[in-house]
Each structure stands twice: as C-alpha cells, then as structure tokens.
Description:
mainly alpha, Ferritin, 2 domains, binds fe (ii) ion
Amino acid sequence: MESKLHTILAMIVISSLVMVSNLLAGNRPQRSSISVEISQNVKEDLIQLREEEKLARDVYLYLYTVWDQWIFSNIAKSEQQHMDAVKKLLEKYDIEDPADIDIQGKFQNQDLQDLYDELTAEGTPSVEGALYVGATIEDLDLFDIYRMIGETDIIDVSNVYENLSRGSRNHLRSFLGQLMLFDEDYAYEAQFLDQDEVDEIYSSPMESGHR
Length: 211
Ligand SMILES: [Fe+2]
C-alpha cells in the first residue's frame, strides 16, 4: 500500500516537472485562438484599403445624385460591404481606422482626397464620363489589391483581399458593359492594370460568391 502511494506521488512529481520544463522551453499548451503577428506593411495596406473602398463608395454615391443611374447606387452598396469587411480586420488586429468618423467625400489620405475631388469633377459633365470614372476606380482598386495579395499569407486577410478583388472585377465588368451601351466606340483605356488584364476581365463572365 505504502509503495503504491510512493509510486503515485512520484508520478505526480514527474508530470509536474515535465509541465514546468515544457513551459520553460516555450511549449505552452495550445489555445483555441492563436494571435497572429501582422507586419507594418500589411497594417498600412489595410488602412489604405479601407479608405480606397470608401473612395469608391463616396464617388458612386455622388455620381448617383448627379446621374440617377442604378449602377452607381447598386455598386455603392457593395462598396459599403467592402468597407465593412476591411473594418472587421482593422478591429481584429487593433489598427486605427482612418474612416472612423465617416464623412462622405472626406479622407485622411491626401492622395485619395485629391482623387475624390478629381474623379467627381470628371464624372460630372457626361454620363459616359461618370461610367469611365467607375471603371477607373475599379482598375485602381484591382491594381492595389493584387499588390497587397502578394504581401501577406495571413489567411483571413488574404480571404478579404480575394473577395474584394472578385467584387471589383464584377464592378469593372458592369461599368465597361454600361459604357459600351452608351457608346460602343467609347473604349476604356487601362490606367493602372495592363490593358490585356482589363480586356481579359471584361471578356470573362461575372464571378459568383461576392458582388
Ligand atoms: Fe468596387
């Protein structure tokens, strides 16, 4: 009886020692949520992307008031979803939100502020010009998201980038399709992506899974 007790005590001591040595060696027990380190580059990308999606939403909301075309209000709703998806990542990774105070047409990023001013002015004189502005924004958005995709392998960040790029390709197809309806000679010239990439997107079908 006594020797059995000694054996049990010895086992308890040994397993405690193993736990302590594992902890000292850094072999901590697995937790259900694993915190992922996010690089400064990716943080900056997410901050930029949040306002870039806002640029799209705000320009389309403005152009809808000017032209009363369904395409602008419809795609603005989708851009709001894109903004929300990026916002969730900012919250998750504890990154300051540049659009926390969300005033339509106002941006912290001065380049995006300049673009907003420029693009709303370009979209005002004609509806073709407004649709061209839409294609320009999606062209820029895709160019930036494709670069960002190459800069991270964090799965939830990559998933958002993939969803947003699918949405942007669909938006680009919609704007180019409308542009052709208004004037079939009004060809869009790629400004950020290569022309081949734009042509390939336009000639391929709408993608499902995200608007
Ligand atoms: Fe878009």
